[in-house]
Design a protein that fits this description.
Radius of gyration: 29 Å
InterPro entries: Topo_IA, Topo_IA_2, Topo_IA_AS, Topo_IA_cen, Topo_IA_cen_sub1, Topo_IA_cen_sub2, Topo_IA_cen_sub3, Topo_IA_core_domain
EC number: 5.6.2.1
Number of helices: 20
CATH class of the largest domain: Mainly Alpha
Structural class: alpha+beta
GO biological process, one term: DNA recombination
Helix content: 25-40%
Catalytic activity: ATP-independent breakage of single-stranded DNA, followed by passage and rejoining
Keywords: DNA-binding, Isomerase, Magnesium, Metal-binding, Topoisomerase
């Protein structure tokens, strides 16, 4: 018997439906001819808690740290024992096993750790499915690979899980026990991703809180020219007082000039134009989709992920959603017209977009060299009756289909124009843009474009009709939202000060993964470290105090982003994981010495004096503050 082990039931059923023969369902599996398809339920196994290595570690004490397992142990998740027993029984009857985890690092770990935990020693093949449509699954079944090829991917995922355990267990226990000594009766959870994300928000909130607005002044003038009117802006230079962005810091020079301008004559001294062509945005990765869904439809990152999972598993309308790639396989290009016509035929908006597509166009999105374990999100071609979907599902599906359809539209062609005028011996400037070909742009916005500049000729004269000084103020940075925080996690190099580290991080993934970013935000909210205020994400007093009490490096992105770089080397270049874990342990031992009750007490007291909000639970009760607890804390906090 050939045994196929899928990552989840929906994938298992899709595989069984694609096999030749009549499926016969049994407990936890489907039998089709000589093949049995079973499945995991997500992770069936988890890292064992500290007390599985030594019962004394059930008690949280500083003198137990660091906790360093000699031989790592896994244990079944409480609700997974039944399915684990099904797989154990089927393995005893199998002659061959097919690993059908999702095509990513975590999917490789999830199924392979079960196979190894249950002691299978026979051959293992690898099935890579990224599209649950029957033809796509049948194609994947026809090109099984040797699972040994994916051993580096497994080692990287295993190293990540162990490193997360070491980092989270040890630092969480150290800060929680020290926090109790400081008078805080609650868990202070520390994680290799969640804490730097919290740090981003805490620092942004501090910038907003400490921001002091500065006035600046702008002067505009409306000009009459030969073929119309336009507005120009004064470009002050020395000796006027300017800030580092060239903004005028004193009103008097602008006001004095404004009084002299009406009726003054001038001349267009320089006219520059540049034609530009911009290709359509690429198809979506999950994080890019989460950013747009938040901006356009107000969906949280987790809501978008949940919608994508339903579109993928329940409705089978899109390909595998937890992808970090924005490119499509070249073989998909030939079938793109059929796929998109099938996907778009039942929706008026999509049919309208489909009508403008030119399927002879081939954009840079089709590129095998850019496709790794996954490709970009795309429709499967199954007809989508969006009237039967939930509104959020229809909205997200349209976004996904639109970005693929846009690959068959012409580039956006524009002409940027800059006109420099000399009036009363002062420099004025106007900028405008003329759309030469809207290309793909109408699929993305219905907003009216600003009117272009009138037709201009270099050297022509002008006359000032009116002028005015506007009093403005510098503005603080915007608070993070789901969209901007996900984008910050994707582009974490922007938040790193060290130029060398910044250059390195631009070449690698940011904080977290496509699959975990939404969950990290929700975890921080659930634990009372972040709160939502309308669309904004703000740090609570507890969240601010935690970051203040930790060594600065723990709340910054450099360490965890460089972790991902090292894990990528293990996955892609088959590097030895041992040096990575050894370096982590050495680093961890230094960090543990910084757990100090006095520092935590001071941080908690300092946060109480700030204007940071306190999260409220049901009924308006405040959460995150001290609460009574009897006995010794044994709860294992989730980490990420």
């Amino acid at each position: 018997m050939r045994l196929i082990i899928a990552e989840k039931p929906s994938l298992g059923r899709a595989i069984a439906d694609a096999l030749p023969g009549h499926p016969r369902r049994q407990d936890g599996a489907v039998v089709v001819g000589d093949t049995t398809v079973t499945w995991c339920l997500g992770h069936l196994l988890e890292q064992a808690p500290p007390d599985a290595y030594d019962p004394a570690l059930k008690q949280w004490r500083l003198d137990h740290l660091p906790i360093l397992p000699g031989r790592w142990k896994l244990m079944p998740r409480p609700k997974a024992r039944g399915q684990l027993a099904v797989i154990r029984k089927l393995l005893k009857e199998a002659r061959e096993v097919v690993h059908a985890g999702d095509p990513d690092r975590e999917g490789q770990l999830l199924v392979q750790e079960v196979i190894e935990h249950l002691g299978w020693k026979g051959p293992v093949s690898r099935l890579l499915v990224s599209d649950l449509n029957r033809p796509a699954v049948q194609r994947a079944l026809g090109r099984l690979e040797d699972n040994a090829r994916f051993t580096p991917l497994y080692r990287a995922a295993q190293s990540r899980a162990r490193a997360d355990w070491l980092y989270g267990i040890n630092l969480t226990r150290a800060w929680t026990v020290s926090g109790r000594q400081a008078g805080h009766d609650g868990v202070l959870s520390v994680g290799r991703v969640q804490t730097p994300v919290l740090g981003l928000v805490v620092r942004r909130d501090a910038e907003i809180r400490d921001f002091r607005p500065r006035p600046f002044f702008v002067l505009w003038a409306d000009l009459a020219v030969a073929r119309g009117r336009l507005r120009v802006w004064w470009q002050p230079g020395e000796p006027h007082p300017l800030d580092d962005q060239g903004r005028l810091l004193a009103r008097e020079p602008a006001a004095a000039l404004a009084e002299r301008l009406p009726g003054a004559q001038g001349r267009l001294t320089q006219l520059e134009s540049r034609d530009k062509r911009q290709a359509a945005p690429l198809p979506y990765s999950l994080s890019a989709l989460q950013v747009d869904a938040a901006r356009r439809h107000g969906l949280s990152a987790k809501a978008t992920l949940d919608v994508c999972q339903r579109l993928y598993e329940r409705h089978q309308l899109i390909t595998y959603p937890r992808s970090d790639c924005r490119y499509l396989p070249e073989e998909h290009f030939a079938a793109a017209r059929t796929t998109l016509e099938g996907a778009c035929r039942a929706d008026d908006t999509l049919r309208g977009w489909l009508g403008g597509a030119d399927f002879s166009r081939r954009s840079k999105a089709w590129n095998d060299r850019k496709v790794g374990a996954h490709h970009a999100l795309a429709p499967t071609g199954k007809p989508a009756d969006l009237s039967r979907l939930e509104k959020a599902e229809a909205d997200v599906f349209r976004l996904i289909a639109r970005n693929v359809l846009a690959q068959f539209y012409p580039p956006l062609a524009v002409r940027d124009i800059q006109a420099d005028f000399r009036i009363l011996d002062e420099h004025f400037r106007a900028k405008g843009q003329e759309i030469l070909d809207p290309g793909w742009k109408p699929l993305f916005t219905t907003r009216e474009q600003a009117p272009p500049l009138p037709s201009l000729t270099e050297g022509e004269t002008c006359r000032v009709e009116q002028a005015e000084v506007e009093d403005r103020e510098t503005r603080p940075p915007e608070p993070f939202t789901d969209a901007s925080l996900i984008k910050a996690m994707m582009n974490i190099a922007r938040y790193v000060d060290d130029p060398a580290v910044r250059r390195t991080l631009r070449e690698h993934d940011g904080l977290g993964t496509e699959a975990t970013r939404a969950g990290i935000l929700e975890t921080l909210v659930e634990r009372g470290y972040l709160i939502r205020q309308a669309k904004a994400l703000r740090a609570s007093r507890l969240g601010s105090a935690l970051i203040a009490s930790l060594p600065e490096a723990v709340g910054r992105p450099e360490r965890t982003a460089l972790w991902e770089q090292r894990l990528g080397a293990i996955a892609e270049q088959d590097d030895d994981p041992a040096p990575f874990l050894a370096a982590l342990i050495e680093d961890l031992q230094g960090l543990l010495t910084a757990a100090d009750a006095d520092r935590i007490r001071a941080a908690l007291a300092g946060a109480q004096g700030e204007q940071a909000p306190t999260p409220r639970g049901k009924g308006g009760k405040k959460r995150g503050g001290p609460r009574r607890r009897t006995g010794t804390a044994t709860r294992r906090p989730r980490r990420q």
